[in-house]
Amino acid sequence: MKKNILKKLVTGIMVTTLAAGVLTGCAKKAESDSNANASNQEASDEKATDASTDNANTEDAKNTDLEEVTTIYAATGGAPKPFTFVDDSNELTGHNIDLIKAVFERLPQYKLEIEVTDFPSIFAGLDSDRYQIGVNNFAMNEERKEKYLFSDPIFANEYVAIFAKDSDKAESVESWEDLAGLKTISQAGINITTALENYNTANPDNAIQIEYSEADLVLQIQDVEAGKYDFVLMDKPMFEYYQKEFNFNVVGAEISNDVSQDLLPQPFSYLLISKGNEQLVEDINKALKEVIQDGKSKEINENWFGSDYSPSYN
Amino acid sequence: MSKLFDGKLVFTQIPTLLEYLPITIELTLVALIIGWIIGLLLAMIKIKRIPVLSQLAALFVSIVRGTPVIVQLYLTYFGIPIALKYFNYYNGTSYNVNTVPPILFAIIALGLNQSAFDSETIRAAIQSVDKGQVEAAKALGMTGKQILRRVLLPQAVTVALPSLGNSLIALIKGTSLAFTCSVVEMTARGKIIAGNNYRYFEVYCSLAIIYWLLTIIIEWVFKYIEKKMSVPEDVPIIKEDQLQERRLNL
Q1: Which residues form the ABC transmembrane type-1 domain (chain B) (predicted)?
Q2: I need a surface site. Which of A17, A66, A251, B152 has the fewest CB within 10 A?
């Protein structure tokens, strides 16, 4: 008797959990769909509401009539803010996200699904073509170029080197060369580390000491504050967000864009696209150009950073 | 200097994190059940020394126990699509894995991981049952299934419970890696929240509290079950000398 009850219990648990799994799976999908719709609407609300609703209608019509809409899966790490993050109302947003949505609004032949995943999983997912696009303010380097395709630049990056406030080095730093011999901390795989590595490859005799860490940026800045590292390199707009929240006892030394241009062939951020999607890259680039030229990109930039970091296409 | 550590936030954001507790529990429970079932199978294969299968089982257990869970998650979530891509390429098919919900991959990876650990526990527990009892059961004419169900399992479960509890605790913490498979469970939610407010340290403090409490609950539950399952202490045990006496009395 007892055993029967146990048996029933176990099977009951199994069935319910499996059912729950299926249900939550579906629910999640539905949710993300509605999210996408909502944010599309939001984005379009900013500009010419009539035109965009028309757009949406034709999009729907195309969806049903031609059934040639390909779903494109994009992945993001959900950090760093303000490039990509999930806001208080649990919606994925940020500069990169707004931009990629603006791009795909112009590409009715694709349906964009953005998934949040662990940062290293973006690369693994692109390798396996589970995701077609990586959107995480990615910089370009040779290694990445071999493995992935790149869109045209989506963002013109500016870096700041962050020093402790009492550091005498802070004022003398004007170029990357001034950072040589100093000790820094950085996370593997992000655009800043790429920049540092590129510099070191180009200047093996004048290298910057990089210590790799998965530590959060807050801790990294604290380590600089405490003198454990000489400096930490950050995207300028991000640093401003951090200072607003934490008000660290540090100063940011801006590194002139000319110099960083020498160092990084392209001090830009890109969308990463998995190999074999050449057509997608072409379509994205076309739409991206439109987004930048008609001022939508500028609008997004000013919304997030207060100034325009759009790459110029002259 | 503004607040470096926002102590209040550690507690105020716990409810937001708990919204994702169901996902964590779902991952845990389903992986647990898969782990027990496959673990029992593997254990039986090993005990019965079925040729080929038992070697394969040993290889599987060795690989799974010898690699980190996070690597296994990567291998299932990204390895299977790559394998499928090659399969499609060589066979001209066009199967697409993207339609499979990510949580399934996490469940498979965690479940298989769990099965490898549990199989050893279950095997040891079954083998701890005195052979004489199996022989006695055979002598009474029980079938293999009956022996397993009536003699081996009830005793083995008692022996295995503490270890199974341990591995369940390991599993619930293992689910915190499911974000690698794009499954947003509690830890992932925490990382996402911190991505918004930059308060990573605080979120990890909150998560530590939640996981700790969960573990305490599991410990309690297992202690309770152990108590229920164990042979009651007030059952009179016939000691050797009493036995002698009885024999003499006969």
Answers
A1: 21-222
A2: A66
Q: Which helix H or strand E contains A185, and what residues bound it?
A: strand A183-186
Q: How many domains does chain A have?
A: 2
Mind listing the pLDDT tens digit for each residue in B19-46? 999 999 999 999 999 999 999 999 999 9
Residues 6 or more apart from B29 whose CB is under 8 A from it? A13, A17
Coil/strand/helix, residue A124: helix
Q: List the single residue in A with minimal CA-CA distance to B154.
A: A3
* Rounded CA separation A216/B199 (Å): 9
Positive or negative: CA dihedral B181, B185, B186, B192: positive
Interval A256-284 mean pLDDT: 78
B5-14 b/e with 16+ CB inside 10 Å = b? ebeebbeebb
Stretch B109-128: mean pLDDT: 94
Give the integer Cα–Cα distance in Å for A9 and A25.
24
pLDDT at A66: 52
* CA atoms of B117 and A55, how far apart (whole Å): 55
Give yes or no for B198 touching A (CB within 8 A).
Answer: yes
Q: How far is it, in rounded angstroms, from Cα A216 to Cα A1?
A: 55
Full set of structural domains in chain B with CATH: 7-249 (1.10.3720.10)
Contacts of B149 in chain A (CB under 8 A): 3
Cα angle, residue B8 at apex, residues B5 and B9 outer, rounded to 5°: 75
Asked which of A20-29, B134-143, B210-219 is least confident by mean pLDDT, the reply is: A20-29
Domain that holds residue A112: 2-155+267-305
pLDDT of residue A254: 76
Q: State residue A258's pLDDT score.
A: 56
Are A233 and A118 found together in one domain?
no
- Mean pLDDT taken over chain A: 78
Q: A278 and A230: one domain?
A: no
Q: Give the tokens for residue A43.
A: 């984005």
Q: Which of A131-135, A223-227, B168-172, B174-178 has the lowest mean pLDDT?
A: A223-227
| DSSP state, residue A256 | P
Contact (CB<8Å) A216/B82: no
Give yes or no for a contact between A157 and A235, defined as CB atoms under 8 angstroms apart.
yes
Q: Which pLDDT score is estimated for A230?
A: 92
Question: Is ipTM strictly over 0.90?
Answer: no
* Pair B25, B214: CB distance under 8 Å: no
| Domain match, A33 and A163 both | no
Confidence of residue A7 (pLDDT cuts 50, 70, 90): low
DSSP secondary structure letter of residue A152: S
> A288 with A229, same domain?
no
More confident position, B233 or A60:
B233
| Domain match, A58 and A183 both | no
Any B CB within 8 A of A91 CB? no
A247: contact with B, CB 8 A cutoff: yes
What confidence category does residue B235 fall into, taking pLDDT thresholds of 50, 70 and 90?
A: low
